[in-house]
Design brief:
alpha+beta; single chain; 39% helix; 6 strands; two-stranded antiparallel sheet; NADH Oxidase; four-stranded antiparallel β-sheet
Length: 228
C-alpha cells in the first residue's frame, strides 16, 4: 500500500478587514448571478470553458477520487441532437410525468418543454458523475461520496463561469440517459447536470425572484439536546 505524502500548506494570512472585504465583494458578485434561458450566439473562447473546468476540479472530493467528467460540446449537430432528445423528455414530463404541485412551482419561472437555447449557445457542458472507477486490472473501484463531490464541483464550475461574465443554467432533463448515449460515455458515468453556456442575450429577461434571508437559511449556536 502506498504511504501518504504530505507537502507544506502555508496560504498567505490576510488581515481581517481585507478578508471581510473580499468576502463582501464575492457575495455581491455571486448575488448578481441568475439562471439564464435566453442566450446570445456570440462565440466564447475554448479557454474560458477550460478555466471553468479546471476551477471545478479544485473541488474537494471523497477520498480525493475526483469522480467527475466534464464533456464540452461546441459542434452544432451534437447540440441539435441534445436539444431534440432533451425536448422529447421534457415534453413527456410537462405533459404527464410532473405532478401539479411541481408544475405550479415551475410556473413562477415561466419555463416549458421548449429548449431552443440548447442549439443557440456556443457551448454545452455536461457534467457526468463517475459512479465508480476501475482498477488497472479491470476490477470495479468504489467511489466514496461521488454524488456529493460532483455537486460541489458543479457549484465551483458555476461560480467560475459567472466570474468570467458568462451565464448558464442547471438543466436536468429527466431521464437523462440520452446524454450518455449521444456523448458516448462509458457505463460507469451518469449524467448529472447539463450546462448551456454563453453570454446573456441583449434582451434577456429573468424571473424577479428573492433569495432567502440569512435568518431563513442559518442557525447560530443552537442549544444542545439532552436526549440521546
Amino acid at each position: 500500500m502506498t504511504e501518504p505524502r504530505f507537502v507544506p500548506y502555508r496560504p498567505p494570512r490576510m488581515a481581517v478587514a481585507g478578508s471581510l472585504e473580499r468576502g463582501r465583494h464575492f457575495l455581491e458578485l455571486m448575488d448578481a448571478r441568475r439562471s439564464v434561458r435566453s442566450f446570445s450566439p456570440e462565440p466564447i473562447p475554448r479557454e474560458a470553458i477550460e478555466l471553468a473546468i479546471h476551477t471545478a476540479s479544485t473541488s474537494p472530493s471523497g477520498a480525493h477520487q475526483q469522480p467527475w467528467t466534464f464533456v464540452a460540446v461546441s459542434e452544432p449537430e451534437t447540440k441539435r441532437l441534445i436539444r431534440v432528445a432533451a425536448e422529447r423528455e421534457e415534453k413527456r414530463s410537462y405533459e404527464g410525468r410532473m405532478s401539479q404541485e411541481w408544475l405550479d412551482a415551475l410556473r413562477l419561472l415561466g419555463t416549458d418543454w421548449h429548449k431552443p437555447y440548447l442549439e443557440l449557445v456556443p457551448w454545452i457542458v455536461v457534467c457526468f458523475e463517475q459512479v465508480h472507477g476501475w482498477w488497472p486490472d479491470g476490477r470495479v473501484r468504489k467511489h466514496y461520496y461521488a454524488r456529493e463531490s460532483v455537486g460541489i464541483a458543479c457549484g465551483l464550475f458555476i461560480a467560475a463561469l459567472h466570474q468570467m461574465g458568462l451565464a448558464t443554467l442547471t438543466h436536468t432533463p429527466s431521464p437523462m440517459g440520452f446524454l450518455g448515449r449521444i456523448l458516448d460515455r462509458p457505463s460507469n458515468e451518469r449524467p448529472f447536470i447539463l450546462f448551456p453556456i454563453g453570454y446573456p442575450a441583449p434582451d434577456a429577461m429573468v424571473p424577479d425572484l428573492a433569495r432567502k434571508s440569512l435568518d431563513q437559511i442559518s442557525v447560530w449556536d443552537p442549544t444542545p439536546s439532552e436526549t440521546s
